[in-house]
Amino acid sequence: MKRHEVSKCLLCNNPIDESVTWITLLSNQFPRTICSHCEDKFEPYPAEPIDKTVISLYKYNEQMKDYLHRYKFMHDVLLAKVFRHQIHQHLAKKEATIVPIPMHPEKLKERTFAHVDELLKQANIIYEHYLIKITTETQGGKTREQRINARQIFALKENQNPAGKEFILVDDIYTTGTTINQAKKILLDAKAKSVTAFTLIRR
Prior knowledge:
Elements: H1 22-26, H2 36-39, E1 54-59, H3 62-73, H4 84-91, E2 97-100, H5 105-111, H6 115-122, E3 131-133, H7 144-148, E4 154-156, E5 166-174, H8 178-189, E6 194-202
Parallel strand pairs: 1-6, 2-5, 5-6
Antiparallel strand pairs: 3-4
Organism: Ureibacillus sinduriensis BLB-1 = JCM 15800
Family: Belongs to the ComF/GntX family.
InterPro entries: ComF/GntX_DNA_util-trans (IPR051910), PRTase-like (IPR029057), PRTase_dom (IPR000836)
């Protein structure tokens, strides 16, 4: 893996000052893609959340809001590299099957890439699709009550059998939990042994 994959921060375009040591050369650590100044603006989510079935890495602050806008809506796919080390560190040794929250095919055409899949790919995490999204409806812009009362937006993918298996659902952001809970219900109704979740961000 290249030590100097990028020379300038993907967020602010300032030079990345990363000294190369034998430890970084011999380890599996990913090269930095953002500068320490930008990195410090992201706020870690508490390590001991109230709901331990959902683990999140960062709080939703202004820096993260800007990151998400550029990554998802301005289609800057390179930004999938920013958190790959943190995602890899958390998921790489998990024995459960990693399942990304899927996009509807129409939304995928519009965005040009599956943003959750891309985060996992860049982090070298193996995943499987067990779910399909059956509506183009999104949770963005809805009130908390509308999100909680939303109709089921997922279905089990054809020829997939979750029975007796352990799963970790992965999404970019957790707000009210509606998306994760609906996906979780589909897998548990199909006799999955357990379903937990991991998200990059939590509001």
